[in-house]
Structures are given as structure tokens and as C-alpha cells.
């Protein structure tokens, strides 16, 4: 009998609104060059609203039968992702037999390097050569000094996909990570090119706690993951939790 290599269900979720998202939004609104947040990016917590969003997401998962909820949870090591996953667990959104989170450093936020904590205005003022290079190369290939391009993120996520097919075939897997990770996972799972994924990115930011969901489908002797929904925010709307779409801290 053919053994499926893919999970039976895969959800990829961006963390709830973070203090970094709020600080970035305030800096842009005020026309500032710097994003005012002191913690390391890895230590930036959820905002109060982000906690509400995460709990609402957990209650949405909890409406599913126990045997349909996630039974594997892979998370970015960043605090905001860990807090989001924990809120889902506390709300009863995971399989009753769920064990513990799998923290995977490959799911971390895109690294912004020299440009971290700067708004678009700040980059243009302090690093005009970098702003020009980004405009020329585009965000897919542009790598800021000491940072990452989208291609760099994709390279580390390729091994995440391999790990999922190796260890979690037939399981129900939830990934809690970051905006660029969500988009780059779509790029890999749906075998896109640069133009396709950047077109999706340009349509709208990935909302905080939005759900991207894949289901297993069989075509002849093959099985594959089929996209069921993207940027799905009904879990928040059904409970009146405001939907937020601020880009991640730094320039995505």
C-alpha cells in the first residue's frame, strides 16, 4: 500500500500582533526613522490584542472534533510565536493527546541585519545605497548586510519541508511562525516562481493569526497537499477580535 509522504492536514499561521508590529506602525504614522522597541527581536512579545487574537484562533481550532485538531505543532523560537501557540493550546485548540511543541530555529523570522529597527524612511536616509539596491534587486533576492533575502529563508525552509515529510506523514501539523515564512512555505509547497509569490505578497500582508491551510489529496498513485484557504481570518472575526496586517518589524 502506498504510504503518503505528506501530513493529512497542514496549517501555517502567522503569530498574533506583536509589540514590534505596534511600534513599527506608530513609527510609520509619525514619520520616524527608527522603530522604538528595545528588546531583541527574538524576545518581542505579543501585544494585548495579539493575545486576544491567539486565544480566538485557539477557540476556532477547539470547535473541531478532537481527532481533527493539530496533533503536531512546530513553532519558531521567537517569543511571539511561542506565546501564540501556547494560547491555542490553553484554549483547547489541540488534539487531546497532544504532547509538546517542537521548537524549530529554521522557522525563525527573516533576519533584517543592518536595516533592523528602521522604517522605510530610515533606510532611505541612513543607508541610501541599500535602499537603491533593494529597489534594483527586489525583495526576493535583496540581502541586507548581515541579514537575509527571501531566497535565504526559502533555503532553510526546504529542509523544514523535508523534515515534515520524513517525520509527520499522515499527521495534522500546525506551524506557527512569521509573515515571510508563511509566504515562502507557499512558494515551496505550491512550486511557485518569484513573480507568482511576489504578486500574492503585493495583494495584501499576511494578517496576524491568519490561517493558511492545506489538505491531502490523492491523484492516481500520487498524493499532494492542496491549498484550501489562505489568509483566513474568520476565526478572529467570529469573536470580534480586530484583524491586523502590520508587516513584521523591520522591512519585509
Sequence-ordered SSE layout with sheet pairings:
Elements: E1 9-14, H1 19-30, H2 48-62, E2 72-75, H3 79-90, E3 102-103, H4 120-126, H5 128-137, H6 150-167, E4 172-177, H7 179-189, H8 194-203, E5 211-219, E6 222-232, H9 234-237
Parallel strand pairs: 1-4, 2-3, 2-4
Antiparallel strand pairs: 1-5, 5-6
Helix pairs in contact: 2-3, 4-5, 6-7, 7-8
Element-by-element helix/strand order: EHHEHEHHHEHHEEH
How big a fraction of the residues is strand? 15-25%
Distance between the termini: 44 Å
Overall, the morphology is globular
CATH C-level: Alpha Beta
User: Could you list the spans in which at least 5 consecutive residues all have pLDDT below 50?
Assistant: none
- The tally of structural domains comes to 1
Number of helices: 9
Question: Considering the protein shown, what is the CATH homologous superfamily?
Answer: Phosphoglycerate mutase-like
On the 0-100 scale, what is the average pLDDT? 93
Largest sheet: 6 strands, mixed
What does this structure look like?
The chain is of the alpha/beta class and 252 residues long. It has one domain: Rossmann fold (3-Layer(aba) Sandwich), CATH 3.40.50.1240. The protein is 39% helix and 15% strand. It contains nine helices and six strands, in the order βααβαβαααβααββα. A six-stranded mixed β-sheet has the order 3-2-4-1-5-6. Strand 5 and strand 6 form a beta hairpin. The chain is globular and about 55 Å long.
Amino acid at each position: 500500500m502506498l504510504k503518503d509522504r505528506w501530513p493529512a492536514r497542514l496549517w501555517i499561521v502567522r503569530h498574533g500582533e506583536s509589540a514590534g508590529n505596534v511600534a513599527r506602525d506608530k513609527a510609520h504614522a509619525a514619520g520616524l526613522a527608527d522603530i522604538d522597541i528595545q528588546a531583541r527581536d527574538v524576545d518581542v512579545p505579543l501585544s494585548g490584542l495579539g493575545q486576544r487574537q491567539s486565544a480566538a484562533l485557539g477557540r476556532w481550532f477547539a470547535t473541531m472534533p478532537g481527532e481533527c485538531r493539530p496533533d503536531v505543532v512546530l513553532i519558531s523560537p521567537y517569543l511571539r510565536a511561542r506565546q501564540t501557540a501556547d494560547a491555542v493550546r490553553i484554549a483547547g485548540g489541540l488534539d487531546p493527546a497532544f504532547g509538546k511543541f517542537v521548537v524549530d530555529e529554521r522557522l525563525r523570522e527573516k533576519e533584517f541585519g543592518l536595516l533592523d529597527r528602521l522604517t522605510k524612511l530610515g533606510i532611505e536616509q541612513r543607508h541610501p545605497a541599500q535602499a537603491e539596491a533593494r529597489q534594483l534587486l527586489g525583495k526576493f533576492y535583496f540581502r541586507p548586510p548581515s541579514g537575509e533575502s527571501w531566497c535565504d529563508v526559502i533555503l532553510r525552509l526546504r529542509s523544514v519541508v523535508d523534515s515534515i515529510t520524513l517525520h509527520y506523514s499522515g499527521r495534522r501539523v500546525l506551524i506557527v511562525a512569521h509573515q515571510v515564512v508563511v509566504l515562502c512555505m507557499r512558494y515551496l509547497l505550491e512550486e511557485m516562481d518569484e513573480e507568482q509569490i511576489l504578486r500574492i505578497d503585493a495583494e495584501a500582508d499576511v494578517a496576524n493569526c491568519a490561517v493558511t491551510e492545506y489538505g491531502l489529496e490523492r491523484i492516481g498513485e500520487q498524493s499532494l497537499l492542496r491549498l484550501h484557504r489562505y489568509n483566513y481570518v474568520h476565526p478572529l472575526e467570529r469573536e470580534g477580535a480586530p484583524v491586523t496586517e502590520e508587516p513584521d518589524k523591520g522591512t519585509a
